[in-house]
Amino acid sequence: MIEVGGNSYANSIYEAFLPKDHPKPKPDSPMEYRTKFIRAKYETQDFLKPSLRISSKAGLESTNSLNSVDNSFSSTSRKHAPEDTREFVGQLNITVVKGSGLAVRDMLTSDPYVVLSLGEQKAQTTVKASDLNPVWNEVLNLSVPRNYGPLKL
C-alpha cells in the first residue's frame, strides 16, 4: 500500500467513478451491501476509470457464477460515468521560506533540506550545508492528480 501512495490514493483510483446514488458502505452497513460494493470495486472494477480496467476471463467467470450478488452497481455506474481523461487537475506551488532553530542531527553535519511528496511525486529544496537556520525562498511544484482526495499539509 505504501508503494502506491497509501489507502487514500488507491481509493481515489478504484472509486474515481463511484456514482452518487451508490454511497460507499459504512462499518455498520449490512454485510450484503458491503460485499456488493467490494466486488463491484475490485472484481468488476465498476468505479475505475474505463481505460484502467483490467479484464480477465477468470475474474469474469467467478463474478458471473455468484448468483447471490446483485449487479446493481455495474448496471448504473458505467452508464452515468463521464470519461475524464485528465491525469492532473492542478498544480501546487509551495514556497519554502526558511527553517529556524533546527536540531543537530549529528556532531559533524547538519545539512537540512525539505522534501515534499504527493503520491509518487517528490520535490526537494537545495541542501543548506551546516546551517541550523537555513533560508531557502524556493518554490517547489507538485501536480495534483485527478481524484486525489483531500490534501493534508
Automatic annotation (TrEMBL):
* Bias (Polar residues) ranges: 61-76
One GO molecular function term of this record is: phospholipid binding
Q: Which region ranges are annotated with the description Disordered?
A: 59-84
Residue ranges the record marks as coiled coil:
none
Q: What is this protein called?
A: C2 domain-containing protein
| Any Pfam family hit | C2
Q: What PROSITE patterns has UniProt attached to this entry?
A: C2 (PS50004)
Q: Which InterPro entries match?
A: ARF_GAP_AGD11/12/13 (IPR044518), ARFGAP/RecO (IPR037278), ArfGAP_dom_sf (IPR038508), C2_dom (IPR000008), C2_domain_sf (IPR035892)
PANTHER family reported in the protein's UniProt record:
ADP-RIBOSYLATION FACTOR GTPASE-ACTIVATING PROTEIN AGD12 (PTHR46220), OS02G0722500 PROTEIN (PTHR46220:SF20)
Domain (C2): give its ranges.
73-153
